[in-house]
Specification:
42% of the residues lie in helices and 30% in strands. It is an alpha+beta fold. The longest helix has 29 residues. A hairpin with a 2-residue loop joins strand 3 and strand 4. Among the domains are: 69 residues, Alpha-Beta Plaits (2-Layer Sandwich); 77 residues, Alpha-Beta Plaits (2-Layer Sandwich).
Length: 226
Amino acid sequence: MKIFFSLLLIANIAFGLMQWLMPYEQLFEEKTEFEVAEKLVLLTESRASEVITEVEAIAKDDSKLLVSENSSNQLLCYTIGPFKDKARALEISGRYSMQQIKTRLKSSLEKDYLGVMVYLSGHETRADAVKRAESLAANGFREYIIVNEPGKSNVLSVGVFGLKKNAERLMEKLKAFNYPVESESRYREHTIYWLYYQQSNERELLSLLDAEDVSNGISQIPRQCY
């Protein structure tokens, strides 16, 4: 019996030493594995994620749009002129044609101000106008010209004045002799020409005007493309 208790005591001592030297988890390792539960996502977090995704998609699309706009082939448009001589305009148009640039020629009717014409009207025939001119000469008004144009027939012009006050001074003198004097502004019509052309903004700007063109008032003017 003493031997049995001695062996039991030795076994208890040995078991206690094993527990002290080795952790409990290694003695009784649990083999059961549990699946990790799916993480819960709050509705607010889900909506925020969707908004961020939409914003990133819009930003990506905008970036593509900006790139396409910056890389697009824009046009530069110009007007060249004015030309009083059509042949000169065509000559300069040929310079651009040699550079593979097409130009369009356009014309417009312009009026140059000449001054104020002082005149006498009311003459049915040229002879009546000449008779009135003799009367003017007798009173010291010796400069005149007979004008015939649409709306004015056998008009006796006594001068065209660049300054209105000079015209008014002459009119006062003629009125003193009881002449039915009138006045009107006079213009001279003429045709001017312009060249229009456009080129790519990726190409170096062409300016084919020479010093003579510039001295004659011809310019290359940027304009809006239509």
